[in-house]
Task: inverse folding
C-alpha cells in the first residue's frame, strides 16, 4: 500500500495530466528492477499502467540494476509511446538482498525529471547503522521512501512508513470532497489521515515504534541491524567452507541464498524437497527462490536471539534430510 501511494504521488507530481480528475489520456510507465518486490509491479497494474508500463531494468551478477543502461531503457520506453513518471530503486531486493546504486539512480532521475522512489521496506533502516549505511548512499535524494519497521526494526507487523522529502506532496494524492470528514479538500491537515492515505480509518502504528525507542533508545535499531547482517555473513562463511553446499554470493545484508550440491540428482528438485522437508520437520523455517533457473534455499536471519551454533545445526539438519531424500529416491 505504501509503494502504491508513493507511485500515485509520483503520477500527480508529474503534471502531464490530472489523472485524478480526468483519467488517463496517455500511456504512463515506471522504471524498476526486474528483481524488485512484486508489490511494485502490482501497484503499477492497479494504477492501470499495464504490463507495457512496467519497464523492467536489467541487473548485474550481484542482482543490482545496471545503471549504465538506464538511459537506453528510458529512450526505448519513449519510443514505445510511454511517458515514464518514476524510477524505483530497491533497498534491498527481496530474493537476494541486493542494494541498487541509489546515488546513481537519484542523479539519473533528477536529470530526466523523474520521481525517484526507494522501496526500502527491508534494507532502508541500514541508514541507521554507521557500519552499513553505505548500502543506502543516495537514499536521502529520494522523493519518497518506504520503510517496514516490522522487518529490521523489531516491531510487530504491520508497521510501515511512507516518507516524503517534500511534505506538501504527501497531501495532494487523495484530494477530494468529503464534507462529513473535512471542510476543505485542499487544506493540509496533518491529523486527517484520510487525506494522505488510501484508507480513512487506520490502526495506530506509531506507538509500536515509540515504545521501543522509549524503552531502549534509537541505538537498539543500529545494534539489531549490525548483529543480523554480521550473522548472515557468519552463516555465509560456514556455507562457503562446507563442501556439500554452494553459496550464491556473499550477502550485503541478512538474506543468504545457498543450495545443497552433494548429489548427482536434479539439484533443483532435491533443494525443493529439502526445503519442504525442513519446514515440515518444524525446527527451522526458510524459504526458496529461483535465480538464473537455479533453485536456492533462502534464509533471512531475523531473530536477534539467533546464535552461531544455530547455523551449524541448520546445515547439519539439511545434510541429514538431503541424504534421506536421496536414498528414498534411488
Result:
Amino acid at each position: 500500500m505504501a509503494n502504491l501511494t508513493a507511485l500515485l504521488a509520483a503520477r500527480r507530481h508529474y503534471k502531464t495530466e490530472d489523472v485524478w480528475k480526468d483519467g488517463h489520456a496517455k500511456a504512463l510507465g515506471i522504471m524498476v528492477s526486474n528483481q524488485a518486490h512484486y508489490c511494485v509491479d502490482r501497484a503499477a497494474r492497479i494504477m492501470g499502467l499495464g504490463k507495457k508500463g512496467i519497464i523492467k531494468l536489467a541487473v548485474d551478477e550481484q542482482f543490482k540494476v545496471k545503471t549504465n543502461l538506464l538511459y537506453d531503457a528510458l529512450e526505448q520506453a519513449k519510443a514505445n509511446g510511454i511517458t515514464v513518471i518514476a524510477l524505483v530503486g530497491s533497498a534491498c531486493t527481496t530474493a537476494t538482498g541486493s542494494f541498487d546504486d541509489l546515488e546513481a539512480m537519484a542523479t539519473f532521475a533528477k536529470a530526466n525529471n523523474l520521481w525517484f522512489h526507494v522501496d526500502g521496506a527491508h534494507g532502508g533502516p541500514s541508514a541507521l547503522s554507521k557500519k552499513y549505511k553505505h548500502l543506502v548512499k543516495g537514499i536521502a535524494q529520494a522523493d519518497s521512501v518506504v520503510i517496514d519497521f516490522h522487518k529490521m526494526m523489531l516491531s510487530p507487523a504491520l508497521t510501515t512508513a511512507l516518507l516524503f522529502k517534500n511534505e506538501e506532496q504527501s497531501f495532494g494524492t487523495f484530494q477530494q470532497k468529503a464534507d462529513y470528514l473535512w471542510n476543505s479538500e485542499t487544506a493540509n491537515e496533518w491529523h486527517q489521515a484520510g487525506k494522505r492515505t488510501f484508507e480513512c480509518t487506520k490502526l495506530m502504528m506509531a506507538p509500536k515504534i515509540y515504545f521501543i525507542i522509549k524503552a531502549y533508545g534509537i541505538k537498539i535499531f543500529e545494534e539489531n541491524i549490525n548483529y543480523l547482517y554480521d550473522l548472515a555473513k557468519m552463516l555465509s562463511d560456514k556455507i562457503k567452507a562446507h563442501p556439500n553446499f554452494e553459496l550464491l554470493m556473499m550477502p550485503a545484508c541478512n538474506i543468504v541464498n545457498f543450495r545443497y550440491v552433494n548429489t548427482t540428482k536434479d539439484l533443483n528438485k532435491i533443494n525443493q524437497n529439502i526445503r519442504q522437508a525442513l519446514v515440515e520437520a518444524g525446527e527451522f523455517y526458510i524459504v526458496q527462490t529461483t535465480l538464473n533457473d537455479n533453485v536456492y534455499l533462502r534464509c533471512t536471519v531475523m531473530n536477534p536471539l539467533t546464535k552461531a551454533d544455530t547455523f551449524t545445526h541448520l546445515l547439519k539438519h539439511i545434510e541429514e534430510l538431503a541424504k534421506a531424500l536421496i536414498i528414498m529416491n534411488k
In short: The chain has two domains: 2-213, 228-328. The chain has a mean pLDDT of 94. The longest helix spans residues 219-241. DSSP finds ten helices and ten strands in the chain.
